Amino acid sequence: MKLEEAIKSSRFTDASHKAAINLMYTSYWMKTHLNTVLKENGLTIEQFNVLRILKGKQPEQMCVKDIGSRMIEKSSNVPRIIDRLLVKKLVKRTPSKEDKRETLISLTEKGQMQVEDSNALVDALQKRIIGLDEKDAALLSELLEKMRTTD
User: Fold this and answer.
1) How many CB atoms lie within 10 A of CB 59?
2) Which CATH number fits the domain that encloses residue 120?
3) Judging by DSSP bridges, how do beta strands 62-63 and 91-95 pair with one another?
């Protein structure tokens, strides 16, 4: 769908303005689709992100600070997310042997199965809704990274 149709406006000051609005609209559009798929597995996007981070570091455990530094949404309340994942028995918390003030987080077996199931759903969704071939997807990633280098 064209941006103008989606937001019912065609007034943009220039191409950069339109690109910025398009990027924000597309981000929320994609997040809505991800929320719908992950909700079927009882997860939020932030919980799924924590599980994926932990899976990527297996078999190592991670402290909350390190998990937070890898989050896509930097303003996420990682301790609260971990508390919710503990209730669901998807992660476990272990006191650090080196620093008694620190706790280490790791996936449980149930958490590992949950992240694998959710990954399959998310991968299928992304392939379906992105709808770009490898060349165009690579170009899009390159352009987004180029945009972020101006920061």
Assistant:
1) 6
2) 1.10.10.10
3) unpaired
Within a domain: residue 3? no
Tell me the pLDDT of the chain averaged across its residues.
92
d(CA 56, CA 112): 11
CB 112 within 8 A of CB 54: no
Instruction: Name 104's Cβ contacts closer than 8 Å, sequence gap at least 6.
Output: 61, 62, 63, 93, 94, 95, 96
Q: Report the predicted TM-score, pTM, of the whole model to 2 decimal places.
A: 0.87
Give the total number of structural domains in the chain: 1
